[in-house]
């Protein structure tokens, strides 16, 4: 097989003197900015939790109810649009020096259309958050505040999904710099705007926190579009050409690859949403402690998530080039990186729980004294499932590079809802463990999913990679 100079330079198929070391460097070089982007984007949610924590235990509990419901649906949209990254990566690996600009443009355009359509479908659901939480027997005051929070937060959906599409395409092009710069700028802006609207002259309270995030995300999307248009290295892709044109064939391909990813994402997010709703039945203190523990766990998770996104690109490029050794190396390196980091996170959560909790809850805030010991107990379980959570995320990213999304979806459904939720319910109510039982169910579900995904990766990566059959689409590249 003849490799293009660009692919050879990236170490996708040439036999370098140290292929494992080269792959480690390439993965770190790509994953580092992706991790920072994820941390900055998650920082929008985490900084909101910090601001809500300054308002007291009840606002942070209401914010947790609204945010968990929002993220449940939003993550499904992310799954659908996340197919942009592996499709662009495969096209670049397959091109081997030929022009791939049409492929990139068509895929990005379809991804943006998917984000728009998902937003239009979900916003009516989010509008009735208060009524939905009432049906789930949540505290009426918390449900009312959560509903007010959501009616502003839901406008975050489209700009956030559009940002994800562009970030995925740029990651596949191995140019994560623009989304990184924008994300790092957006984080302090979100904190400043949220504080201004919540505590400043507008004095909007919980609603002001949501408004700050919406304004920040629209500004971030505009900045990223501007950065792409000004980047001379990206001019040839003309990503925003004819955005109004609906490409049904490419839209169908994005949905075909992304739909199982969206369902798997909803399955995992649904596990946490079910846990949050269940926590609400135990009272405000366990719910607030649960919200803080989730923020800590989610912050740690952003690192293996970024490594998994890098694995999608590295594996996807090797997959497009039919480089079996390269894709196996890419997956193995990413898995070990994710495993090592999450072991370190688990140790920190075990050894310094109160310091971590203090980052999200003011010790002097109303009700904080009751929340601290409960959250510390939850962090023990969070440390236990951290390793499995990180490994499953990286394994899932590697499988997405192979465009294997349907079986991982089934694995997620069985692991989270066939094991995690039932076991958590039995331990919480049947064994009288309360909130700790729900977290124990997390551990079991995530462990089952992690082991199953790693075994599937080992089996698929050992088989000869199928050569991508996108030749039939070459005639449509100029669309």
Number of structurally distinct domains: 1
Report the β-strand fraction as a percent range.
under 5%
Tally of extended strands?
Answer: 0
Please give the share of residues in helix. Answer: over 70%
The structural class is mainly alpha
- Unreliable spans: 1-16, 467-479
Order of helices and strands: HHHHHHHHHHHHHHHHH
What is the global morphology? globular
Whole-number average pLDDT? 85
Q: How far do the termini sit from each other?
A: 29 Å
What does this structure look like?
- The chain has 479 residues and is mostly helical.
- It has one domain (19-468).
- It is 80% helix and 0% strand.
- The longest helix is centred in the first third of the chain and has 37 residues, at 19-55.
- The protein is globular.
Key attributes of the depicted protein:
single chain; 479 residues; mainly alpha; 0% strand; globular; disordered N terminus; disordered C terminus; MdtK-like; MATE_fam; transport
Q: Could you provide a short overview of the structure?
A:
With 479 residues, the chain is mainly α. The protein is 80% helix and 0% strand.
Question: What's the arrangement of secondary structure elements?
Answer:
Blueprint: H1 5-9, H2 19-55, H3 57-81, H4 84-95, H5 101-127, H6 129-135, H7 140-153, H8 157-172, H9 177-199, H10 206-230, H11 248-280, H12 284-320, H13 324-351, H14 353-358, H15 368-401, H16 406-430, H17 435-462
